[in-house]
Amino acid sequence: MKSLRSHMVWFNLPNLPTPVKVLFVGYLLTIGLGLTMAGLQIMMTHGMADGKIGLSVDDIVYSYYGDRSASKLESKLNGSMKEMGTPEARLEIIKWVRNGAPEAEWDTHIKATFSENCAACHGVIPGLPNFSNMEEAKSLAKVDEGASVQSLTRVSHIHLFGISFIFFIMGFIFSFSVGVPRWLKIIVILMPFAFLMLDILAWWLTKLSPHFAWLIMIGGLGYSLASSFMWVVSMYEMLILSRNGKVYGNAWENDMEAWGVDLDKPREEG
Question: Do 230 and 189 form a contact (C-beta atoms < 8 A)?
Fold first, then answer.
């Protein structure tokens, strides 16, 4: 009879069975690519809210609190949508907005300007305003108050459910790591969830006041660093550390002993 300790010597990232390693590595590679694409998408949307390349506090303020000195349409035309049409068309739409978006000018030339420069996406891609409709265009010609409550509610629950599930699996894989102090492992696994909740709470606070925009930066940076650390350590141990032929033993050994599990007790086989 062997003890539970001797049965679970493979229970760590370097010594995992090859099929399990393939599963974990495939997941981490896919998630790593997905998170990279998400970062690029943020840079191309929120990161261009002020019309400049790179994510800044101003971008965060414009996205969630809004630019209340101008309409949402004008803010977009001077920000992330600046290069999507000709300069002449952009100035024509901005002039129409500043004149109060008069309906008399819609059929004469403004509708055609929107059709030529915006209709390829707006009116075709679900979720984007339909600029062939005058009422939708006029609704965006009002003062820019940032993200709507409806939009924040929808995106908040998607992020809380979706991203927390990603962090759960990533943390589960990282829990098999070796050489990481138990206290550090616990903190790193907890950090993405804590910073994700901070990030989403800060969206709502920034909607009320632009002074909370820094919390969004802190939240996003916090869970990005923690998840990156788990990703790098996990990949290193499965692909590189595993090559030295060493047996590392049960990665959960300290926790199991703390739970009162007797790892040295003989265990019947079969």
Answer: yes
